[in-house]
Amino acid sequence: MKILIIDDEEDFRTITASCLGLLGGAEVVEANCGSVGIRRAEQEQPDVILLDLMMPEMNGIDTLKNMRKNPSIQDIPVIFLTTKGMFEEFAELKELGALAVLTKPFDPITIGDQIREILQQSKVKKD
Q1: In the predicted model, is pLDDT for residue 122 greater than 90?
Q2: What is the pLDDT, as a whole number, of residue 25?
Q3: What mean pLDDT comes out for the span 41-53?
Q4: Which one-letter DSSP state was computed for residue 86?
Q5: pTM (2 decimals)?
Q6: What pairing do the DSSP bridges indicate for beta strands 78-83 and 98-104?
Q7: I want to staple 60 with a disulfide (CB 3.0 to 4.6 A). Which of 53, 96, 109, 124 is the partner?
Q8: Residue ranges of the domains in the chain?
Q9: What is the C-alpha separation between 37 and 81, in angstroms, rounded?
Q10: Is the pLDDT of residue 84 over 60?
Q11: How many CB atoms lie within 10 A of CB 60?
């Protein structure tokens, strides 16, 4: 599985990429902001995108809105990441096509399994 992490915090990207790559066997691609993330998504065509909600310049919601307008990446599943308690309302994100919201900090041992479970549940709902 190829995962694109879009997050402005380098430490978070590094830790998450290590957890998903070393522990979960995923191929991980990183981007430090929404605009770079959109370009990386076009180039890499990941299986899923982990998208930070709170970023400078283009936040996660605006990044997702721009992705959904782009035919080459509009169908890539997106899971939001946010600091616990920072975002309580999931309805707008779901309307934009987000599959879930995971909170930071996360359990590094189970993050890969959580992502796979979310993707599996979304496939079951579509069938």
Answers
A1: no
A2: 87
A3: 96
A4: S
A5: 0.90
A6: parallel
A7: 53
A8: 2-126
A9: 14
A10: no
A11: 26
Q: Compute the distance between CA of residue 82 and CA of residue 94 in angstroms, rounded to an integer.
A: 15
Other CB atoms within 10 Å distance of the CB of residue 99:
19
Q: Residue 127 — pLDDT band, cuts 50, 70, 90?
A: very low
**Cα–Cα distance measured from residue 15 to residue 23, given in angstroms and rounded to the nearest whole number:** 11
Q: Which residues of 22-56 are buried (b: 16+ CB within 10 A; e: fewer)?
A: eebebebbbbbbbeebbebbeebebebbbbbbbbe
- 124 pLDDT above the threshold of 60: yes
CA distance 66 to 27: 24
**Of 24, 30, 61, which Cα lies nearest the Cα of 43?**
30
Q: Tokens 């998903």 correspond to what residue?
A: 20
Residue located via tokens 């605009």: 35
Q: Take residue 76 and report the two structure tokens written for it.
A: 């890539």
Q: Are 49 and 119 in contact (CB under 8 A)?
A: no
Distance of alpha carbon 57 from the chain centroid: 18
Give the separation between CA 111 and CA 127, rounded to whole angstroms. 25
Using an 8 Å Cβ cutoff, are 67 and 38 in contact? yes
Residue with tokens 């979310």: 118
